[in-house]
Design a protein that fits this description.
The structure is a single chain. The protein has 15 helices and 4 strands. With 376 residues, it is mainly alpha-helical.
């Protein structure tokens, strides 16, 4: 059921782990049935079909590989740029954005989830997964509320690959090929360089990080580990209870998150009230609301495009396209949105290592499950 976990990762926006899970499932499928050449296509289609059942049930046409790749890069950049503008214009508004994402998830999945005859996962599993999602959002929002440049924080968010490998080894007992370990070390080096640049940005004096920078990096690191643990919990839940639909997962994850965001009502109300003023962070009304709308729309389109990209082109091609998208988004962010970071060689070098490490990981051989992994 690894492809079911990949489906949910796409809905969560965790594209790196989704591609990895889909490729692992394809490897197992090829080992089980190497005599037929048609086994590859249905396996990729399973990921696409499950995600589309919750995201775009009426969209059936599949564009060409080149068109899908171009759409992924465009949608990813058009999603990232408004997000960074929002976060840099109104620090601490992450809870408001997360609430909007949860409401969007409920609207997108309620019809399909209620129409199901029965739900597969027990409420306890849904509650644990929702709690992990809430923790990820809260920790990420706390990091983005820091004075560190948003482009730098978004680069650090690409450490999900490292977090997934750590949890895969420590919790799930996975073994990784040497090429993958080397790629993860390259990504880690890039993240360390980026985090080191954060210390110089927050306080231009000593090399040691300021307390605020340290808190931001620590929160972001914790958020990535929480998300990786959530992925492991998803796989375990699917193995024990069966494969839940994407609509069921998205509905409960979004609905169960609402009470937690209500606890942050005062902060959400504060920023929502600020957004109705004539100007927010240099943006005239209603620009910031339009940016939020654009972020939600293009985030939705990213998820739809990624499902089709994995189904049509495979995991390796999706990895390369996602890496190109991240680099283009980073370049746009630094050059156009954050001019103070243009001349930071450490930040550029760190981002380049993260991107190169991600590409190397995609070309490496797939991990095999150790004997510690529970089989049903």
């Amino acid at each position: 059921d690894l492809h079911a976990a990949a489906t949910q990762d796409i809905l969560d926006g965790n594209f790196d782990h989704a591609i990895h899970a889909a490729s692992v499932h394809q490897l197992h499928q090829d080992d089980d049935d190497s005599s037929t050449s048609s086994s590859e296509s249905p396996t990729r289609r399973e990921v696409c079909d499950e995600a589309e059942s919750a995201l775009s049930p009426h969209v059936k046409a599949v564009p060409s590989a080149a068109m899908l790749s171009l759409l992924m890069v465009i949608c990813g950049c058009c999603c990232q740029a408004p997000y960074e503008l929002i976060m840099s214009s109104d620090r601490g508004c992450g809870d408001l954005v997360s609430l909007a994402e949860a409401i969007t998830g409920i609207v997108a999945s309620t019809g399909s989830a209620i129409a199901e005859k029965e739900w597969v996962l027990p409420m306890r599993s849904h509650a644990l997964l929702a709690a992990a999602g809430i923790a990820f959002s809260m920790l990420t929002n706390r990091a983005l509320a820091s004075p560190l440049p948003t482009a730098m924080l978004c680069t650090l968010k690409n450490g999900s690959l490292v977090a997934n490998v750590i949890v895969g080894v420590a919790v799930q007992g996975k073994k990784y090929a040497r090429g993958q370990v080397f790629a993860v070390l390259v990504v880690t080096t890039g993240l360390v360089l980026t985090a080191g640049d954060a210390s110089g940005e927050a306080e231009s004096g000593p090399v040691a990080m300021s307390s605020e920078s340290l808190i931001a990096v620590s929160c972001l690191t914790s958020a990535l580990l929480v998300r990786a643990l959530s992925c492991a919990m998803q796989e375990t839940a699917f193995q024990r209870s069966g494969r839940a639909s994407a609509s069921e997962m998205l509905f409960f994850r979004s609905a169960l998150a609402l009470p937690a965001y209500m606890l942050r009502a005062s902060n959400i109300g504060l920023h929502a009230h600020r957004w109705f003023k004539s100007e927010v962070g240099g943006l005239s009304w209603p620009t910031i609301w339009l940016l939020l709308f654009a972020n939600l729309v293009f985030d939705y389109l990213c998820k739809v495009t990624m499902t089709k990209l994995i189904a049509t082109c495979g995991a390796l091609h999706a990895t390369l396209v996602l890496t190109v998208q991240k680099f283009v988004a980073f370049a746009i962010s630094v050059v156009l949105l954050d001019s103070e970071q243009r001349a930071s060689p450490k930040l550029w070098l760190g981002a380049a290592l993260v991107l190169l490490g991600t590409i190397a990981y995609g070309f490496s051989s797939q991990p095999s499950l150790s004997s510690r992994k529970k089989t049903n």
